[in-house]
Amino acid sequence: MTGSNETRILMTGIDLEPFVVLTGAGISAESGIPTFRGDGGLWEKYRAVDLATPESFQRDPELVWRFYNWRREMVANCMPNQAHKTLAEIEHLIPDYTLITQNIDGLHYAAGSQNVLELHGSIWRLRCSACEERWEDRRAPVPEPVPACPACGEPARPDVVWFGESLDIKILQKAQQAAARSRLMLIIGTSAIVHPAAAIPLVARNAGARLVEINMEATPLSPYVDETLLGPATEQLAEWWLRNRPHN
Ligand code: BJW
Ligand code: ZN
Predict the structure, then answer these.
(1) Which of 9, 65, 69, 208 is 20 to 30 A from 243 (CA-CA)?
(2) According to CATH, what is the number of the domain 1-33+80-120+166-248?
(3) Do the Cβ atoms of 96 and 17 come closer than 8 Å?
(4) Which residues of the chain are modeled with pLDDT < 70?
(5) Relative to the alpha carbon of 128, which ligand is closest?
(6) Residue from 124, 92, 89, 87 nearest 105 by CA
């Protein structure tokens, strides 16, 4: 063990590395972005099957684009909160650290995180519905009713993962591998019901990692974690980090 690692363990009491964090919509709730499920959640007002499936895009691409344009404008007007910022700080202090998010809002990057495994894609990228073309587009809203692929002219769609679609296998494998070698995993603001993301903490647990969950309420994962910290992510993460961060 190196001197610096040893110091980190002695000073904090818990082994911080390899450290993995998995975030969900709850971490962005205090930035003003609605979650999907629960009171005020997106799926209370809109039906996921009408808006977040490949079939809905085939049926009515304009409707799907109206939904994503509304969300692009909303996200463009939101700022990262203290929880996003704390995770960016952790990235700079802990060498063996992996941030995995289910969020498509880009707020981890906006807060200063540099390496983020975005399991469900990004609202700030488009991709072609017909060819392999992918590109960044930060306009909010996208002015065309349905933008076209610059390479082949076919309809473009948000580069996000809809229900029934496979996640990017390279990103998923990186996330699962990080989980499999982690000693500590923090799970923040996810209902832990959407797979395969919801199973990533169990990969960590089966490999012997300590799991700490931060959420407003218990989730299906709660019986499997070592500690559930109930409350808003900004407060709970700040307090957890104060208790556990290396002091030298
Ligand atoms: C706070 C807070 C605060 C609030 N502080 N906390 C195995 C078993 C069963 C089903 C399946 C399975 N494998 C695959 C499936 C099917 C499906 C699935 O999981 N369905 C479940 C609903 C049952 N999965 C898929 O289709 C996935 N694809 C796949 O597996 O491909 C292979 C395959 C294909 C076909 C058949 C079988 C396999 C793809 C899933 C893609 C998910 N996409 C979305 C939309 C992304 C684009 C967009 O945003 O528009 O991703 S759905 C939505 O849910 C979004 C999220 O990333 C995801 C997770 O939601 P999250 O982040 O957990 O948010 P919420 O709202 O659910 O929870 C918020 C939490 O925060 C709550 O707990 C609050 O309490 C808390 N909170 N405020 C802290 N201030
Ligand atoms: Zn194309």
Answers:
(1) 208
(2) 3.40.50.1220
(3) yes
(4) 1-14, 248
(5) 2
(6) 124
> Which pTM does this prediction carry?
0.94
Please tell me the residue having the least CA distance from ligand 1 atom 31.
166
Active site residues: 120
Q: Residues 182, 18: contact at Cβ < 8 Å?
A: yes
- The answer, yes or no, to whether any atom of ligand 1 lies below 6 A from the CB of 244, is no
At 241 the pLDDT is 96
CB burial class (10 A; 0-12, 13-18, 19+) of residue 12? middle
Ligand number nearest CA of 158 is 1
Structure tokens at 193: 């019901």
Q: Which two tokens stand for residue 225?
A: 């974690």
User: Which phi and psi angles does 58 have, rounded to 5°?
Assistant: -65, -40
What angle is formed at CA 105 by the lines to CA 103 and CA 111, rounded to 5 degrees? 100
pLDDT tens digit sequence for 48-84: 778 899 999 999 999 999 999 999 999 999 999 999 9
**Where do the CATH 3.40.50.1220 domains begin and end in the chain?**
1-33+80-120+166-248
